[in-house]
Amino acid sequence: MIKNSFISVISQEDKKENRGSVEFQIVSFTNKIRRLTSHLELHRKDYLSQRGLRKILGKRQRLLSYFSKKNRVRYKKLISQLDIRESKTR
């Protein structure tokens, strides 16, 4: 399995202080998603990991929509740093 370089957008000091912040949770979910996607490229029939990936994607989607409503400027900055697409609004 190839090790991917994961994102460290938030500095080490902020990690210890702000583990409950929305930005930290989005970054950690993104790291988990990238790790699971690389795992599923090798193990295509791992259905439990596929289910876990879908659950994490849903959680991140809900957090992103909440964060975009709360602070649009920081949301745009975080989206660009993580290199993920902007969520569709309903």
Keywords:
mainly alpha; Helix Hairpins; 4 helices; elongated; chloroplast; structural constituent of ribosome; uS15_NS1_RNA-bd_sf
Describe the structure.
It is a single chain. The chain is mostly helical and 90 residues long. It has a domain at 22-82: Helix Hairpins. 69% of the residues lie in helices and 0% in strands. The protein contains 4 helices and no strands. It has helices at 12-17, 22-42, 47-70, 72-82. Helix 2 runs antiparallel to helix 3 and helix 3 runs antiparallel to helix 4 (72-82). The protein starts with 11 loop residues before the first helix and ends in an 8-residue tail after the last helix. The mean pLDDT is 86.
Named at the architecture level, the CATH assignment of the domain at 22-82 is Orthogonal Bundle
CATH homolog superfamily of the domain at 22-82: S15/NS1, RNA-binding
What is the alpha-carbon Rg in Å?
14 Å
Following the backbone from N to C, one meets helices and strands in this order, namely HHHH
User: What's the CATH C level of the domain at 22-82?
Assistant: Mainly Alpha
Q: What class would the helix/strand composition place it in?
A: mainly alpha
Largest sheet: none
Amount of helix? 55-70%
Distance between the termini: 38 Å
Number of helices: 4
Molecular shape: elongated
Output the CATH topology of the domain at 22-82. Helix Hairpins
Tally the beta strands: 0
- Indicate the low-confidence ranges by residue numbers: none
Q: For the residues shown, what is the average pLDDT?
A: 86
- The fraction of residues in strands falls at under 5%
InterPro entries: Ribosomal_uS15, Ribosomal_uS15_bac-type, uS15_NS1_RNA-bd_sf
Protein name: Small ribosomal subunit protein uS15c
Subcellular location: Plastid, Chloroplast
GO molecular function, one term: structural constituent of ribosome
